[in-house]
Amino acid sequence: MKKFLFIFLSVFMLFFLFSCSSQPVVKTTQSTLPETSEKIYFTVSFIVTVPQNTDYVYIMGDFNNWNPGDEEYRLKKIDSVTYSITLSQEKGKTINFKFSKGTLFSVETDSNFYEINPRTFRFDYNNDEARFEVENWLDNK
Question: For the purposes of burial, counting CB atoms within 10 Å of the CB of 29, is it exposed (0-12), middle (13-18) or buried (19 or more)?
Fold first, then answer.
């Protein structure tokens, strides 16, 4: 009887070990690298040609709550009719904007002095250059 019990337990143990070893081993590993949510920013130079006798030019838009005289967005004078500013936005971001002379009563217009719709620009290329022309100012009527 002892011999039968020993054989039975041995066969049972072999069967049990065999069945466990035939199961595939699945390892789950967690990445030790932190997820990066770092944003990429592109820089673009906005260059605008304006009518003669323009003293100051500002850019206003959805990036500064449409503030027409925001000193942070005052363009630098290049020559008597050309101004520039360099803006940085997240890659792929589209902005809406207009040029002004510092007030809501001196925004850019078309050649017939009609106020124009906001311009749009998408930041698709780094170190890009965008050129614009202001035909008239609202306060030049």
Answer: exposed
The residues with which 83 forms a beta bridge, in sequence order, are: 48, 77
- In this prediction the pTM is 0.73
The dihedral region occupied by 125, where left means phi > 0, alpha psi between -120 and 50, and beta the remainder, is: beta
For the chain, what is the largest distance between any 2 Cα atoms, rounded to a whole number of angstroms? 117
- β-pairing, 76-79 vs 82-90, is antiparallel
DSSP class of residue 10 equals H
Short-list 139, 43, 64, CA closest to 100: 139
Residue 131: strand pairing partners: 47
Question: Does residue 140 contact residue 107 with C-beta atoms inside 8 Å?
Answer: no
- Looking only at the bridges linking them, the beta strands covering 58-61 and 94-100 are antiparallel
Q: Which pLDDT score is estimated for 27?
A: 47
pLDDT at 140: 83
